[in-house]
Amino acid sequence: MKNVFWILIAVLFSCNNVQESNNADTVITSAKVYTLSWDNPSLEGIPAENAPFKDGIWQPDAEAIAIKNGLIQFVGSNEDVQNYIGENTNVIDAKNAFIVPGLIESHGHVQEIGEKAEAVNLIDLSAEEIIEAIYNRSQEIPEDEWIIGSGWDEAIFANDYPDMVELSKKVPNHPVVLNGLRGFGAMGNQLAFEKAGITNKTEATDGGEILKDNQGNLKYVLLNQAKNLLNDKVPERTFEQKSRIMMYGLDELNSLGFTTAHHAGVLGEHMKVYEDLHLKNKLPIRVHAFIAARMHNIDLVNKWIERGPTKNDTSFLQVKTFKAYYDGSLGSRGANFIEDYSDMPGHKGVSSKDYGFHEDIVKKAMDAGFQLAIHAIGDKGNRDVLDFYNNYFKENQESKELRHRIEHAQIVHPDDFKRFGELNIVASMEPGHAVEDMPWAIDRVGEERAKGGYAWRTLRKNNTTVIFNADYSGTDPSFFYGAYCAITKQKRDDDKQWFPEQAFTSEETLRAYAIWAAYASNQENLTGTIEKGKWADFTFMDIDVLNLGNTNPNQLLNGKILKTMVNGNVVFEQ
Question: Which of 249, 358, 422, 564 is found 20 to 30 A from 144 (Cα to Cα)?
């Protein structure tokens, strides 16, 4: 009898341990969950047969989630999730919030968000207002202190830049650097150019341009990579300042619902900050650091080519991709085209080695197993990059499986759309650019070539994975703004739709910020949908993006992020 008694005690104890081991760390209830775990829509955007979509209306496919050790333990009903609630389980009442897979911002420049927050804001200012704003700042700070401004639009001012000679007269005792909205230009005053050692005899490299007047005098405007001649001479910030700026950007992104950020073009100074934050477990969201394949970044380039891509997929800091630059921007007429610019006969843009694309570096990175993300905007730029990938794959077929990318893929020749799918190239694109650029983009390339611009539907029809991002801080990084632009193909304050036949559905748009972006990083088995065993990365919002996107997309602009969860932890809460 004694043996039977102790056996019963052991069984009861064992059952209790099993129950406790099944208890979740966190349970979310009373939610409206879109898991995205059903099949992809058709290439025309029609929802799959197993999608929770009936009679033109989307229905959330779960209402509760259990989380354990940072992973999704259960997805289902409020009733069934009760089995996972124990004495120490943290229960979050979502109060009917909509939950989607954690959003992924797949191309941006994290430090720029913090830098712009500390700089003089030049967005939407006229040339006269820019000079006035800088003059006003000069009256507030000691002489010889650098003034940094940011946000003037390279496209809008491409034909008539603000008078930096006039600025030099009004602000003679403070070095001034004014960076462009898209990162393709910088202006300054005479004192800043003198401190940087830039004269009318200085030569620009890597496709840069130093603007001069008809007499050969400096206009104090630098385009494309020439901007580094000035920016590199700005006194270096302390490590603490750099860390503060980076954290500001990361915190801003998690407040916008993003659980992962792809930082495109990481320099040595950025990597030091990321490695320090990662070592101290201070990264609030997951970061994919894309190494800038530039000669001025060669030390970091060589370090990581020798080291190889990171192997631990669960690490919050991933280094598996290099960012390369093939041509310039459309606004500043640096993008490379097959035919001349419509508004500048005889000019086709700049690309390849002339723009700082060093094929030997890029190939070494690919040989070392890195994914490539190559910036290409003009139709010639995109064609050349597709040719580059195709030629490399002939000798290195296995590299094709890394899902290499073209960043922006802005204007594509009709003959080249099919090649994206054939070469397994991801098109990384910006919905905001598609509507913000169009008025002057048509001036640059004409109506016919513009039809190949921001052509998401055509790319999808050619079996291309399309992912969405903001290329911040060039445009508003808000998911709701990006979704609105993707679905409507129009600006907030402009009723004109630009090539609406290229628009995405609300489902395709959400996927382009979630599972398709995860796929682009070879992490679709870890994140991008809400399924058992995947990371507990979620975005809580107050609107039904799938239904509103179909019925009343204007309301997307009123959406709010309520909560952001990464690895089962709340990193932002409204």
Answer: 249
